[in-house]
Structures are given as structure tokens and as C-alpha cells.
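Input/output pair, single chain:
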Amino acid sequence: MKISEKLQLIRNIKGINKKEFAELTGVAQSTITRYESGDREPDYSFLKILFEKLDVNPNWIFFDELPQINYVDELAVSNENRQLLIDLNNTLSPNELHEELNKIIINKAIDEIAGQNSSQEKSSIRKFLEAIKLEGHIPFRPLLFLYYIFRYVRDNNEELTNLKLDKSEKPYQTYLLDLVRRYSVLSFKNNPAFTSQIKKQFEASISMYLEEEDCRRLITHYEQVIKNIESKMTPMIVLAHRKIDTKTLFPKQK
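Output:
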């Protein structure tokens, strides 16, 4: 949703017209009209008023994360971090900001597999990645399994078009679960053996710890996921497994 559309939605949620919106935000009604038509981008001071006076959620403005309106006891972004987000928004284009922040989230997620993190508050995606460390197995096995999965997503990215059109409740989570189930090569020379038990562990972890939005973020940013996973493997392992045809690992059921 574009910022112009979000401003119109804010007015509808608040039940105010353009004149009242202009009075609340301290700008001319003609400026509101230009913002909502997309002829002009709202500036720093206007966004700050939305956040501070109208309780608009910065996460929704910048990242499309609900709710649109925050209440005092639901604010999750500190004033300092909110200021940083606004500064970043003024420095980068919306697409650049979205991409950079997704890189941070994905990098933190992959780090949960490769190393320990002592944070007491864990998001659903971090809980999932912690769960698939698969205690008792060498550390790179779950990492490599994820590598195969997202290599397949990249090699067959035309399948993502169907996901975007899918109107079912959890298309991205279902897609990930389907890939785990389709993986058929449990062992082969010089490659780790992914037993049925490991596959079931992945299935359970995805179902329990990954929200639909987590799955969507990982799948649509597959290049960043692959890059981060490769950074945690030795060059020899990366070169060896780059040569593998992922279609042979995830055959489609007839």
C-alpha cells in the first residue's frame, strides 16, 4: 500500500475529513490533497505529527506491519528508534529502506542457527531457527537443509507468482512445508543425511514457530537468505553444494 493510500485510510479510521485532517496536522488542506493523490511525498515533520499526535504506527507506515494505529500500551518502538526510522526514511527511498531492514531481520534469523543468542525476548522466527538446531547433529546440517530449500526457491522463483495470487489462509507457510515434505534424497555421497526425523522436526518447527508473515519475508528475500547462509559455511562446502541441481532434491509429486 502506498503512503498516499495509507493517509486516506488514516482519515477513514479516525473518521475525519481532509479539512479536519489538515487542522490536526498543521498543514494546508491543499497539501493533504496532494499527499493523498500521490503528487507529493509527506515530509519529516508531517510524519512525526502522525506518530505523536494521531498514534499512527511507524511500523505500518514503513513496513506494512499492523496495527495501523497504536494505543499507548501497545507502543513497541522507542522514541529514539522511531527517530532513527524517520531519519532513515528521509535518507533512503521506501524500497531501499524496506530492503535494508529486511536484511537486518534475515541476518538475525540466520544467526540463530549458526550461533548462540542470549536474548530473552525471541520473535517467532528466532524461536523456529533455534528449534531446528537439532541437538545431537553436526551444526551445519540444518543450515545446509535451509540452504537447499532457499536455493530451490531461487532456482524456481516463477512459483512465487502463484503464491502471490494464492488466496488461502497461509500460502507461504504451506509452500515451505511442502518443500520439506518433498525433499527425497535422505543421503548421498559426501552430503549430509537428512533423515525422516529431521524432516519431521522441520515441519513441526515451521508449523509452531513461523507466522505467515515470517514465511513470506524469508521466501520473498531468498537471495539475502542464501547469501547469509553461505557466509556461515566454508568456501569448499559452498562450492560443492552450489553445483547441486535442487530440482532433483525436491521432485514434484505427480
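The chain is about 65% helix and 0% strand. Residues 3-91 form a domain with the 434 Repressor (Amino-terminal Domain) fold (CATH 1.10.260.40).
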